[in-house]
Design a protein that fits this description.
There is one protein chain. The protein is mainly alpha-helical and 322 residues long. Helix content is 46%, strand content 10%. It contains 16 helices and 7 strands. The strands form 3 sheets. A 3-stranded parallel β-sheet has the order 4-3-5. A hairpin with a 5-residue loop joins β6 and β7. α4 packs across α6. The longest helix is centred in the last third of the chain and has 17 residues.
Length: 322
């Protein structure tokens, strides 16, 4: 920086300064950085050793502020090599408080960015090769530099679902709740999405264990709520039992009816209830009998016979005499 001390005062400074000082341009900034690297005979990462996250973010936004379509191939190569791209780093716990530290790197072929339009995806479930973005102009820059985007359906199927059991509880549940609230819109994006999600154990029960939706029962069915009251691992936890979330879970196979095996278990459990709780035993037994009576057609339905079972096989009498 040059300190220009004009005797003419502030007015003279305003008139003369534009002759000597110009607004920085992207091309000029890149040339300066490239020259410093060449002079020092070093790497781009070495030049940025003393640049903090604010400085790197400021430079990245500045480079993206001008029309990216005017970038030359040489400029694109320089920008790609700069360690100014924030990735999703590892989760760090300090004083029982969890936070994710950004790691700044140059671009590689493995980098991706998430094109999130519907879901609220917690950053702790996003892999470290994904780049953080904060503005539309940054997205335009990444596209120009050849970084592939990943839509939400692809992200869920190829990244989120594959790692679902290894994710921390809070970020996992927050992301999956957003998915269930927007379930219909996600299914509009992909016809196979619901079928894939049906096979994923992501619904926590009241004990925190994960299940597929069709492993659990609908807590809004009064009979099930009474008959399964003292059982564990049968209902979704409270955060997954809101009306909007249950509506999506039902479409994924959440059970609203007891199987014959479960009915036998309920009947057997009556003998395990403390004899002092006579009123609850009476209520549960009455509810169970009424439930069997109301659902007798479904519970005791005879399976349909297959076509093969209707065929009559006659033994050839001549063959039996051989």
């Amino acid at each position: 920086c040059i300190n220009l001390d004009f005797s003419g005062g502030a007015d003279a400074t305003r008139r003369l300064a534009p002759r000597y000082i110009q607004e920085p341009k992207r091309k000029g900034i890149l040339e300066v950085i490239n020259s410093v690297v060449a002079i020092r005979n070093s790497k781009y990462s070495d030049v940025f050793d003393d640049v903090d996250s604010t400085g790197r973010d400021t430079l990245r936004n500045f480079l993206a502020s001008e029309d990216v379509d005017k970038l030359s191939m040489r400029e694109c190569k320089i920008i790609s090599r700069l360690p100014i791209y924030a990735t999703y780093g590892e989760n760090v716990v300090v004083n029982n408080s969890s936070s994710t530290n950004s790691v700044y790197k140059s671009l590689t072929r493995n980098n991706r960015y998430l094109d999130s339009k519907i879901l609220s995806i917690h950053e702790d479930v996003i892999p470290s090769n994904f780049l953080k973005t904060s503005s539309p102009v940054e997205l335009q820059l990444l596209k120009k530099l050849g970084v592939p985007s990943v839509n939400e359906v692809t992200f869920c199927v190829e990244h989120l679902f594959l790692n679902i059991t290894s994710l921390n509880e809070e970020p996992r549940n927050e992301t999956m709740l957003s998915l269930l609230v927007n379930f219909a819109r996600m299914c509009n994006e992909s016809k196979e999405f619901a079928a894939i999600l049906q096979e994923i154990p992501f619904v926590p029960d009241t004990e925190g264990a994960l299940h597929t939706a069709n492993d659990l029962y609908d807590i809004e069915v009064p009979e099930l709520r009474l008959l399964l009251k003292q059982e564990k691992n049968v209902f979704p936890c409270n955060t997954f039992a809101t009306p909007m979330v249950l509506s999506s879970l039902r479409k994924l196979g959440l059970r609203d009816m007891l199987s014959r095996t479960k009915i036998l278990e309920c009947a057997s459990s009556l003998s395990l209830i403390q004899k002092t709780d006579i009123e609850f035993i009476r209520k549960k037994a009455t509810c169970l009998l009424r439930y069997i009576d109301d659902h007798s057609k479904e519970l005791f339905k005879i399976p349909k016979r297959s076509m093969l079972s209707t065929l009559n096989f006659h033994t050839n009498s001549s063959s039996t005499n051989i």
